[in-house]
Design goal:
- The chain is mainly α and 240 residues long.
- It has three domains: 5-61, no CATH class; 67-119, no CATH class; 126-237, DNA Binding (I), subunit A (Orthogonal Bundle).
- Helices cover 56% and strands 11% of the residues.
- α5 (96-109) packs across α6 (111-122).
- The termini are far apart.
Length: 240
């Protein structure tokens, strides 16, 4: 005998009976085929959101439900690691406040884990570079405040301030290379028009430079130090 068939009154198609759910403890088949049954359930859920919420709470309250769900979620994550990573990254980008709250709760409950994480991060080259940049920026701001406060006498006042974010953008604008020689090395904060000659301590007058170029330029302007490229350097330093 061939595979028995059954007519689905919803879609009007005759299909094998194994495409109909077993109901009543397996005693008989559902009236609608599987696709039509799912479509009907979705329509009901959209038309009855409150009843669906009640049904969901009852389902979640069943013994062992949470454990079974956790197993399914773990298997799903393990089967699709790349998709799971993309999903998590998208959620974190859309919910920064929730991410910070989660991190704070975790750190409060796990102080040892926090200290271990910080120790590993502080040992990375990335942290050392960021720390060095922040220290150079801190010293530049401190020097500016000392000039403004009259602690250090100067013929001219220093105007303007810039942030670490702007400094990172400046380095990106110059492809993390020295603005003068193009070398890939540790970069220092360089004022195109020196502060001692009235230059401002702000974006437009700042460029990344290697230590040798910064030292060689000394108190000269960019036009005096490298006249053939000064206009290009100042244009890139504006951060359009």
């Amino acid at each position: 005998m061939g595979n028995p068939v059954k007519l689905c009154p919803r879609c009007g198609e005759t299909k094998p009976v194994d495409q109909f759910y077993l109901i009543a403890g397996g005693a008989r088949r559902a009236g609608y085929c599987v696709p039509c049954t799912k479509a009907e359930a979705i329509e009901w859920q959209k038309a009855n959101p409150e009843k669906k919420a009640v049904a969901d709470r009852k389902e979640q309250a069943k013994p062992g439900r949470r454990a079974k769900k956790s197993v399914r979620e773990r298997l799903r994550r393990e089967a699709n690691p790349e998709r799971e990573a993309a999903r998590v990254a998208a959620w974190q980008a859309a919910n920064p406040e929730k991410v910070r709250a989660r991190q704070k709760r975790f750190h409060e409950r796990n102080p040892e884990a926090r200290r271990e994480y910080q120790a590993r991060y502080h040992a990375t080259d990335r942290y050392k570079q960021i720390h060095a940049d922040r220290e150079r920026l801190r010293r530049a701001i401190l020097k500016q405040e000392r000039y403004e406060g009259g602690i250090i006498q100067s013929a001219t006042s220093i105007e303007g301030k810039f942030t670490l974010v702007e400094w990172e953008r400046l380095k990106d604008a110059f492809d993390n290379r020295c603005a003068y020689c193009g070398g890939e090395t540790r970069l220092t904060i360089e004022h195109l028009t020196p502060l001692s000659r009235g230059g401002k301590n702000e974006v437009g007058n700042i460029a990344p430079a290697c230590q040798p170029c910064n030292t060689s330029k000394n108190a000269r302007t960019a036009e005096e130090f490298i006249p053939e490229r000064a206009a290009e350097i100042r244009e890139r330093a504006l951060l359009h």
